[in-house]
Write the structure tokens for this entry.
Amino acid sequence: MDDKSYKLTFKLPQKLYNWIFKISENKFNEAINQKETHFSKTSIYYHDDFEDKDYIFNLKFDKNNLKKINE
């Protein structure tokens, strides 16, 4: 990941987390699979009140730029 890249992190609600990971032994690999399937492309809308401008950021999941982080 280069210095100009954005990073998006979030936690899932417990019920959704349980549903996604209930059948998986390897949670890290299952998380990657779910990201590729459901979150591979994400758009984020941002409104800057100071400039009164709207921005849309399009994020694309790239598993080649992954690194594990401690919880």
Notes: The mean pLDDT is 76.
